[in-house]
Design brief:
The protein is of the alpha/beta class. It is built from eleven helices and eleven strands. It is 34% helix and 16% strand. α7 packs across α11.
């Protein structure tokens, strides 16, 4: 029978940029011409935000934030090595990268062949590893398991899509490649094949806003259909757990995202994430209160800028169904680096 390990980490793009640039989005937001002057005034910010900005534009805080999160990721990667999976399933969002106007699936198993990703060729700019635009990262993808998992989910009445080759992105969208890059941030090599599993997290903002940032006054006349609900993502995650435990595979499932994103939180003028909403769900996760997670609505996640947290709702559903308990977790709060980061590992479960 199969075995299952549940993990969660961030794919925050800011961790790839030099320290002095990590707060660039925060600075860009404060320069919004429709930002109320009192909101831009540091005296109106939480004390923690003023401390992070300091007198160096957040440079020292950026280094500390990355070091803290990557320290947790090191622990997570070591746990992955001990589990020694046959494949790593990564739940991630697509921000108008591979899926655009021609199709936006709610869920899609990306059962590609192996890819040679060039993460910096289409992003540009510096990165902390000093890698250039031609740098290639070889990522093994378990096509066969992708086919098996999609079939197993369809057999369990989960209407999942599947894809055998990229549509509009040359390799892997950042939710997936960053999960690999960050787990291997020491560049010692990532030893396991992966299976990217897309969730339409951005829903009403995926095409209308191209899954990206916008100014406060930029209110689109038309928005897109909503994302799948948190409860539906949990139901899908539960079916994934059933399929894995009924298989002969050792599989790690990974939720790849930060939690609430400041640039999606209108009630903070897009300056700060919704830390209170994040902490409430985090405390429920630590307590194993998955009913609290299931009660969350699409309107709730959109109000709090927690769209990408749908990746974690899939993980929650899988862990609940498997009866996996939380082994350890860490909540790294920030105000100026767009999103608080959670890293977590659950105890492995064997099929019976």
């Amino acid at each position: 029978m199969g075995a299952l390990l549940g993990l969660g980490l961030t794919h925050y793009p800011g961790f790839a940029v030099p320290d002095k640039k990590m707060a660039d989005l925060f600075r860009w937001t404060l320069e919004d011409p429709d930002m109320p002057p009192e909101a831009a005034d540091p005296q109106s910010w939480p004390e923690a935000a003023r401390r992070e900005m300091g007198d160096d534009g957040g440079t020292a805080a950026a280094a500390a934030h990355r070091a803290a999160v990557f320290g947790h990721v090191d622990r997570l990667h070591e746990q992955l090595r001990e589990f020694n999976p046959d494949v790593v399933v990564v739940w991630g969002d697509d921000q108008y990268e591979n899926f655009t106007e021609d199709i936006i699936p709610a869920f899609c198993v990306l059962a590609y062949d192996n890819v040679r990703a060039r993460p910096w060729s289409h992003r540009g700019g510096e990165n902390i590893w000093g890698e250039d635009a031609d740098t290639e990262i070889e990522v093994a993808i378990d096509h066969k398991f992708g086919v098996e998992l999609a079939d197993a989910l369809l057999a369990r009445d989960i209407d999942v899509a599947y894809s055998y080759r990229p549509a509009h992105h040359p390799d892997l969208p950042h939710a997936f490649i960053n999960a690999v890059l960050f787990m291997d941030h020491r560049r010692e090599g990532f030893a396991y094949p992966v299976l990217p599993f897309q969730i339409n997290c951005y829903g009403r903002r995926v095409i209308s806003y191209q899954g990206s940032v916008s100014r406060l006054a930029d209110v689109r006349k038309a928005v897109d259909p909503r994302s799948p609900s948190p409860a539906r993502c949990m139901q899908m995650g539960a079916a994934v757990a059933d399929a894995i435990l009924a298989s002969d595979r050792r599989v790690a499932v990974v939720a790849s995202s930060s939690w609430s994103h400041a640039f999606l939180v209108d009630k903070t003028y897009r300056r700060f994430p919704d830390t209170a909403a994040d902490q409430e769900l985090y405390e429920a996760m630590v307590a194993g209160d998955w009913d609290r997670w299931r009660q969350t609505t699409v309107d709730d996640v959109e109000d709090s800028g927690q769209q990408e947290l749908l990746n974690w709702f899939a993980l929650a559903g899988a862990m609940e169904r498997a009866g996996a308990t939380l082994d350890w977790s860490a909540f790294e709060e920030t105000h100026i680096f767009n999103s608080s980061k959670v890293v977590a590992a659950f105890n492995a479960v064997d099929g019976e």
